[in-house]
Design a protein that fits this description.
- The chain is of the alpha+beta class and 187 residues long.
- 42% of the residues lie in helices and 23% in strands.
- It has a 6-stranded antiparallel β-sheet, sandwiched between helices. A two-stranded antiparallel sheet has the order 7-8.
């Protein structure tokens, strides 16, 4: 009996992993034509994220020394609220980079990002690490619903971040990833 239950659990886990991979691949496929323009790529994914994961916001935060550059798509709820640059200290990106794992939590006014996330009407956020060549950051999605993200939703975000990191790195020549004049990631 125990072996049968264990086998059923293993099959269920494998099925869930396959579904997550399929969803992440489909989302990354929407971004592929816009790989050279990260804002446009995020804008291409946002409608599907809204349907699939009930999330109105999807943005990138790239680590650049002790600062973050925010990449926010046209039409994102954060567009009119978020700055282009943010200090790294105390942010969710800093925690994800330090811990090496994704996180999910409510926007409760305790973190620097909450100063623009809360006025945008966002209530819950999920954050996954992303690597684009030598550069690190996070892919973040947020929702207005008063419901936290399920582990399976965060897993989709993590797999999507992996795929977007590869997609963005492949679309940019190595010399153009960092602009030494502005100190920022070129998008």
């Amino acid at each position: 009996m125990g072996a049968t239950l264990l086998r059923l659990q293993t099959l269920d886990d494998e099925r869930q992993q396959a579904e997550v991979m399929e969803q992440a691949n489909r989302l990354a496929g929407l971004a592929a034509p816009y790989a050279a323009d990260q804002r446009a790529a995020l804008a291409a994914i946002r409608p599907a994220i809204a349907d699939l994961l009930r999330s109105e916001s999807l943005h990138l935060e790239w680590v650049n020394g002790d600062r973050l550059q925010l990449i926010i798509a046209e039409g994102d709820p954060l567009q009119d609220h978020a700055p282009a640059w943010l200090p790294l200290a105390g942010t969710r990106t800093a925690e994800v980079q330090l811990e090496g794992r994704a996180l999910r939590e409510p926007l409760a006014g305790r973190r620097p990002e909450d100063l623009f996330g809360v006025p945008a009407g966002l209530r819950h956020i999920a954050v996954a690490p992303i690597r684009c060549g030598e550069f690190e950051g996070t892919l973040q999605m947020a929702r207005r619903l008063p419901r936290s993200y399920a582990a399976s939703e965060v897993l989709v975000l993590e797999r999507l971040a992996e795929r977007l990191g590869v997609l963005f790195a492949a679309a940019m020549p190595a010399a153009s990833v960092v602009n030494s004049t502005t100190g920022g990631v070129v998008n």
